[in-house]
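Whiteboard transcription, Tuesday session. T.W. wrote the C-alpha cells on the left side:
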C-alpha cells in the first residue's frame, strides 16, 4: 500500500500512470508535507498556496508561495519565490514558472 504524504508515492504513481517525467510536471500544494512529497518525487515546479493552518510552515524548495490563487477583483500576493506573470494564477503563468525552473 502506498505511503501517505510526506512520502512521494502519490506523485510517483501519478507520473507513472500518465507516462510523465518530473520535468514535465508542476504541482500545487498547500502544506509542508505536500512540499516534501513533491520535491521527493523529483518534481521541481511547485506552487504553494497557504491557508490559516499552514501559513507559518516551511515551504523551502517551492517555486513560489502565494496567499491564494487570485481572482480578477482580488489579486494574489507573493509571499516568497519567483514572480508571476500577472496577479492571478493561470495556465500561461504556470507554464512560464515551469519553464523558468527547468531552464
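and on the right, the sequence the group agreed on:
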Amino acid at each position: 500500500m502506498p505511503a501517505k504524504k510526506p512520502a512521494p508515492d502519490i506523485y510517483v504513481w501519478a507520473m507513472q500512470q500518465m507516462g510523465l517525467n518530473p520535468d514535465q510536471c508542476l504541482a500545487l500544494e498547500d502544506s509542508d508535507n505536500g512540499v516534501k512529497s513533491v520535491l521527493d518525487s523529483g518534481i521541481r515546479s511547485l506552487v504553494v498556496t497557504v491557508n490559516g493552518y499552514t501559513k507559518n510552515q516551511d515551504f523551502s524548495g517551492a517555486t513560489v508561495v502565494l496567499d491564494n490563487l487570485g481572482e480578477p477583483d482580488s489579486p494574489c500576493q507573493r509571499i516568497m519565490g519567483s514572480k508571476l506573470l500577472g496577479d492571478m494564477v493561470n495556465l500561461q503563468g504556470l507554464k512560464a514558472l515551469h519553464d523558468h525552473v527547468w531552464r
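Someone added at the bottom: The longest strand covers residues 46-49.
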